[in-house]
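re: ur msg from earlier - yeah i can do the xanthosine-5'-monophosphate complex, just paste it... oh wait u already did. ok heres what im feeding in:
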Amino acid sequence: MNAPKSQPQITVLDAGGQYCHLIARKIRDLGVYADVLASDTPAGDLSDRKGLIISGGPDSVYEPGSPRIDPGILMSRSAVLGICYGQQLMAFELGGRVRKGDKGEYGLALLSNVKPHALFRNLNGGQQIWMNHRDQVEAVPPGFDVLASTDTCAIAAMGHRERPLMAVQFHPEVVHTSQGTKILSNFVFDVCGCARDWDPKDRIRPIEQEIRTVAGDRNVFFFVSGGVDSTVAYTLCLRALGPDRVYGIYVDTGLMREGETKYVRRLFQHLGATAFHVEESETEFLKALAGVCDPETKRHIIGEQFVVVQERTLSTGHFLDGNWILGQGTIYPDTIESGGTARADVIKTHHNRVAGIQKLIETGRIIEPLASFYKDEVREIGEELGIPGEFLHRHPFPGPGLAIRCLCSDTEAPVERLEPGWLLPIKSVGVKGDSRSYHSVLALENLPSDEIATELVNRTMEINRVVGLVKARAAIPAMRATIGTLTPARLARLRRADAIVRRLSEESGFEREVWQFPVVLIPIGVEGAPDSVVLRPIHSVDGMTAQVVRMPDQLLRRMADELLKVDGVCGVFYDLTHKPPGTIEWE
Ligand code: XMP
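and the outut:
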């Protein structure tokens, strides 16, 4: 979207990693233009780059069809940095040995035995890094030294003694690697010798220009949600094309939070929208979702239902002339986690990427001005556009709404003993080593530290999440998985619980300390109180990784007391799982 002023100095070779575009963005944030190309781009096409970065990815170098690079890039004079899978691929191509892992290492680790190397120059303090891998390098290739290790990864970084080839097993591009930006900056400036040629703030003009080019003489339709992404995307189109050419429709799916429709009306009035309409569709959404439990099926139905409502809306009145395209607030993580880039594994299907919408994409009838940006950038763009903070600093809320926070079950089952807690017989989505996981939940009777929780997830194959019990009407072993689907009663229960949590976190100021605070309803309970509530306050910068945030005790107790008064609620749990290995939403 951001038109290059010159040739990219750095190219990120996409091996399917979820963080691939994040690497390029971090380099651009350093003031150096970087782009992303397919991993197997011929070395000849890259000869004028000052440096190359091979990204992470979900595959194993030994799998047939796993991403490869042109080995020529490792023979040229270009500096190359391998990240995660990129390190394994570099080792593999140059005669090192990669060990296929079964368990892997996910989450925070400490870097130790750091050897002097340009990559690690002038790091001050924190050696905290973020790991997310299954396989690891077991023996470095000839000519390489081990540059750093962690407790469970002997070769956390490696570098060639004479040539500018280096690699790290961890992810310097994510915020949880405390010195990550410095490591990338060392690579870009010290190793590659790049000069600053890019203003990271220079983005609104090129975006508006692109909107005008893509739209041509067609009008743009937006199905807005009131969330930051669609609001910013809509405002960009409003500015680029003028209010007469941009239509906003808010679909009330019945899956939204308390008071949402009123809020959205106020927001669009403020933005100066002249064409704005609320479509009441609760009944048809709930009918289409009746009895459905599988999370991916839920997402598909919601996505397709959106298309039904959308097509119905567009086939009426003055939209009949076909001179319109659909605008969406899709941001980069939405496409990447749906397998939208060439190689990223499907973690879950985003509702902006279902079949009906794919058709519009293929016929060139979609405009997604934010598709290469991350959440934090979207907020910055919103601020630059003059959208008031009240609308921009809302916590993100997923398009499919409460449906993905209302877990369903079609069978009854008892909880099972699993040291040191109880295995809840329900599954939630997670992400391990760049791949989707769908595993059970371990419930503990207390709230241990998140380090302990991380350790438990890493060593227990059958789980991807750990929750601790805050308070309940019954002991965990007396609870069962109950039968529960997306009924109006369960949605109302979740909506009530969510409103209580929102009110108490707003009043206490806790809301401002977290990036997002999903409240999840799980079909775990006892007779008369079939559901429990899970609190999931997290900190994140871009939604790609997340850390659990602990709440002050007094607030937590108050919240639990109020939640237990909601009809049908049996217990209140606290999610202690970082992302990875858990995702933010439970699905
Ligand atoms: P996960 O659960 O993948 O969520 O860790 C990452 C971030 O994305 C949000 N999310 C969505 N946002 N439509 C959206 O607009 C969706 O379908 C969707 N699914 C997840 C989630 O709330 C979190 O902020």
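cool cool. Residues 204-397 form a domain with the Rossmann fold fold (CATH 3.40.50.620). ping me if u need the other ligands too
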